[in-house]
Structure formats: C-alpha cells, structure tokens
Amino acid sequence: MIDKPIRVTVFKRDGRTNYEAQWTDPLSGKTKMKSTGHRVKRDAERWAGRWEKELNDGAAGAGRATWADLVTRAERDFLPDKREKTRDSYRTAIGDVQRHLRPKLLTEITPEAIGRLKAGLRDGGVAPATVASKLRHVKALLRWAERQGMIDRAPAIEMPKVEAAAKGRPITDAEFAKVLAAVPDVVGESRAASWRHLLRGLWLSGLRMGEATALTWDDLDGPHVRLGGPFPAFLIPGRMQKGGKDTVTPIVPDFLAFLQGTPEADRRGFVFNPAPVQGTDRLSADWTSRTVAAIGTASGVKVKGDEPARAHDLRRSFCFRWSQRVLPQQLRVLARHTAVQTTLTYYAEADAGMTAEAVAAAVRGLGAG
Prior knowledge:
Blueprint: E1 9-11, E2 20-24, E3 31-35, H1 41-57, H2 67-78, H3 84-100, H4 111-123, H5 128-147, H6 173-181, H7 183-187, H8 189-205, H9 209-214, E4 224-226, E5 233-236, E6 247-250, H10 253-260, H11 285-299, E7 302-304, E8 307-308, H12 311-323, H13 328-335, H14 340-368
Antiparallel strand pairs: 1-2, 2-3, 4-5, 5-6, 7-8
Helix pairs in contact: 3-5, 6-11, 8-10, 8-12, 12-13, 12-14, 13-14
Family: Belongs to the 'phage' integrase family.
Domain Tyr recombinase: 166-360
Keywords: DNA integration, DNA recombination, DNA-binding
C-alpha cells in the first residue's frame, strides 16, 4: 500500500506555450510529466491541484495499484463470502502468481505474464486440469480488481485445453475387502481398527472426506448425525457444500445400522477418529485422504490404469450401488450432487453394465444351441 501522497508541481520549459505538471511516481521513482493545457501559471496550478487529487484518489491512477494492494483487499472484501475450500484455492493461486511472476504492479500481469505462469506451472509437473483451475481463480480475481477500479481492464487469459480425463470406477465388494485387509500394512495393527471404521463409514455413507472427518454426534453448528426426529439423517452446513446450501440427507439403512453399532455412551464428539500414524493431533481431511490413498496403493486395487483406489472411489461405489435401488432424483439427494448430470452418469454406467451382461448371456445361449 502507498501511503506517501503524490505532490504535483508546475513548470514551463523554454520555448513551450503551456505549463507542464510533474510528479514522482512512488512505485517506480520515475518523474512523470503531463501538459496542463494552460498558459497562465495560476490556471496551471489549479489544474495541477485537481490532477494531484485524482492521482491520490486513484481516479487517474489505476495503474498505481499494486499486487499487494489486491491481495489485501481480496482478503478483506472478496474472499470472506467464499466457502473455506474455495478461499484456500484462491490463496493457492495467489501464491502461484507471487512465486512465478513476482509482480509489483497489477499492470505487470499481462497476457505474456500469464503465459509465463502457465509454463511455470506445467514445468513444475502440475496437471493440465489443475493449471486450468488455478488460472480460473486468477482470472476471477483480476476481473474483480477491474470492477473495483484497481486496473483499467483485466488481461485476457486464454484457458488451456483440457481433455476429459477418464474417471475412476466403483470398486466391488471383493476389492473393498482387499482395501480393508491392506490397512495394517500402512497404519500398523494397533491403529487398523480406527481406519477400517472410517473406510466402512465412507463405503456405506457416500460422504466426502471433508464431510466425514468433520461429522459429529453432537455439534449442531457443524456436520452432525441425527438418529431421532422424523427420519435418521446427517445435516451438513452450506459452507462445506459445493452448492453452498445447508442439506439434510436421509441416512440409508446399512449406514444407520453401522452408526447404531456405536454404543450410546460413546456417541460424543467426532463420529470417525482415525488414529494418527505420527504424533497425537487430529488428522486433517487432506492428510486422511493421503493415508487412504496409501492404503489403496497397498491393496493393489486399480480403478483407472495404474491409479489405485482412493477415498472418492468409495463414494463413487456408494452412488453406483444406490443407483440400482432408487430413482435419479432420490440418488441426487443421497449424494448431494449439485448437477443432475453427475447423478445420471451412475445410471448410464449401470445400464451399460446390464447391457454387457445381457449380451454375454445371449452369446452363451447361442453357443449352447
């Protein structure tokens, strides 16, 4: 932030008709000059006074806004209304800009600079889809800066083309048993029970990892289970949801039976308490996801090429199983999908599987004939 005010003075060069204004740019330290358009010194000084005010107010100096100004104002005015995960994504993108471009002025962030940012991310091994996600956050932030009058116009950002990546697949009951069997190999036998408890809960509930690790029995201000009332449900606040809305999700029967297996006296605090492999602090959702991924690797279960089973594949398995039992609009509620297209992909997969089975049966019938 620039606190020292700009001072504008006037002078007339030999051979010139009008007075000129001059001032020192506080960022570059360079002297700037501009014609006042006036021959009379008093008129020129009045013009310079107005110009000085505009420069200090920013009306004529959008180019003076610094990257640090934007980060400060974004933290105060732009990010607080975002979900926590979204705020973290913006902060990560801000860090990428600072690390790769080191901008001082906002006007330094040009299309050419964005190209360097993209190249730096790619060279650092960042996946194309992740590069695109980071650039979307930078683009949104710069457009907000334009609306705030910090820059005249946000630079054009050409988004990289990202091929649709093949997603994972639901894992089978047998594969899930292999995942459970691999738990001690990663966390040790003494911690295995707490991790198997988490994995079974993810398998039966369709919860996202962030939701599962925050789920409690009794904290009504956060994600929590409700076993009484009109129907068993878990309630998740909008700040943790992609759609940004509070949700009440019915608990499916097998997950209800799983929860009821916890004695009433123990239904306090967090529902899932995976034991940390090191230290005693409660694990973050990110660290828990990494451990589950390590368990998936140890199990040998592959869901896409050489990619091992991860936490989200357990949610995908939940959705696939229930797509064969309920209607699409009901699965959308159970899975808390924002877009119905996401829900329908599970029905398409189920239809394809049933078609493949029917074709195989028909072939077997022809062979028997």
